[in-house]
UniProtKB/TrEMBL annotation:
Cofactor: heme
Subcellular location: Endoplasmic reticulum membrane; Microsome membrane
PANTHER family linked to this entry: CYP9F3-RELATED, CYTOCHROME P450
TM segment ranges: 6-21
Listed name of the protein: Cytochrome P450
UniProt family annotation: Belongs to the cytochrome P450 family.
Organism, as annotated: Melipona bicolor
Keyword annotations from UniProtKB, A to Z: Endoplasmic reticulum, Heme, Iron, Membrane, Metal-binding, Microsome, Monooxygenase, Oxidoreductase, Transmembrane, Transmembrane helix
Recorded superkingdom: Eukaryota
Topological type in the membrane: Peripheral membrane protein
An example molecular function term from Gene Ontology annotations: monooxygenase activity
Gene Ontology cellular-component annotations: endoplasmic reticulum membrane
């Protein structure tokens, strides 16, 4: 039996697979963009995939790669991405040219989690534009400055509550506590009502 054709076919498949996996790995080098050299298949996600680093540490490491760079190249497995560091570029993407960046990665399936999936950063296209136009008047600079003080007061009460928890209650379910904090923020910022849900065990109900 002649194994040569089989061997050549296998080599051709491996070469094609390697090309597919690494086809974008010279993108940042080609354009002179600072980046961490990627590994095949995993890109810059190898340590995270092996659980040797947290996603926060990985992003921090990437962000701090070059303090003078306006942006850093990053490979999420096979996908090249840009991490912005320059404030003017961030403003251009999120404010000045925001219409050009209306599509977002659907990290959460809206059918599975309607609340999280319906967040502005999870929406795309016309749906995103509609929600943004609806929310923009609520979050002007002056209103955000006013709300920041109210949110800070809620956060201070929340932090004080956590610091005063007895030792046996240090391990606790955070969802309930964070719901109460959110409840206080909404009551303060939207309805101008000062409550302390953590202590008073109140929940704001709106119909």
């Amino acid at each position: 039996m002649d194994y040569l054709p089989i061997a050549l076919s296998l080599v051709a498949v491996l070469v094609a697979l390697y090309y597919f996996i690494t086809r974008n790995h010279n993108l940042f080098k080609k354009h002179g963009i600072v980046h961490i050299p990627p590994t095949p298949l995993f890109g810059n996600m190898g340590l995270l995939a092996r659980r040797q680093i947290t996603i926060m540490d990985l992003l921090t490491k990437t962000y701090q790669l070059d303090s003078k760079a306006k942006y850093i190249g990053f490979y999420e497995f096979l996908t090249p991405e840009i991490v912005l560091r320059d404030l003017d570029l961030i403003k251009a993407v999120t404010m000045k040219n925001v219409e050009q960046f209306s599509d977002h990665r659907p990290l959460v399936n809206k059918k599975v989690d309607p609340m999280l999936g319906g967040m502005l950063f999870m929406l795309n296209g016309d749906q995103w534009k509609h929600h943004r136009n609806m929310l923009s008047p609520t979050f002007t600079s002056s209103k955000i400055k006013t709300m920041f003080k109210l949110m800070s007061e809620c956060a201070s009460r929340f932090a004080e509550h956590l610091s005063n928890l007895p030792e046996e209650q240090r391990e606790t379910e955070m969802k309930g506590l964070l719901t109460k904090y959110t409840n206080d923020v909404i009551a303060s910022c939207v309805y101008n009502v000062s409550i302390d849900s953590v202590k008073e065990q109140r929940v704001l109900c709106v119909r």
